[in-house]
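Table S2 (continued). Query chain:
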Amino acid sequence: MPKGSAELMNVRREEIVTACAVLYESMSFKDITIKEIGNFTSFTRTSIYNYFQTKEEIFLALLQREYERWIEDLTWMENRYKQLSAEDFASSLAASLDKRPTLLKLLSMNLYDIEANSRLERLVEFKRVYADAIKAVTKCLEKFFPYMGKQEHKDFLYTFFPFIYGIYPYAFATAKQREAMSQAGIHHPFLSIYEIAYKGILKLLGMEPRILP
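Corresponding output:
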């Protein structure tokens, strides 16, 4: 392999993933195609297949990147603070999720299709990063809640991670969904990602949410 080719491949992969991310802000998952992504980059559709076999693999790479950036925030939080109260921990963790709407959108809406249509080796690579996210949250729990036992930490983790899968639809209901709920007599409070996460995290820690910070 020529010198620099690995770096060049990474740059090109990143360009493709970034194009996918931009399109996902205004288009649905089903409407985004490799052709659409190619039109948004300097690549032809054929050349994209040198890096990804399916559009789902591109989305999987985007999801992996979102997890990596979230892990960076979690690591910063662990290193930045010597101690945190439950309220401050909930606030910091909720704020880290508030920065990752794309992560939450992919988890809640498209994860099964993405994983089902990606090669096993790509999926294993992604799952390793997902495992790193669990480890990052675990380190925060161990540092800021040392009085909690290992089982309590595990109980938090295996409730928290499924919980975040459902945040996005509640924070970003469409106008049509809001109208349908109104006509159905459902008085649903529309909260932000931060508000939902903050309240949920405090509940998982066994505390009643008070006034949002």
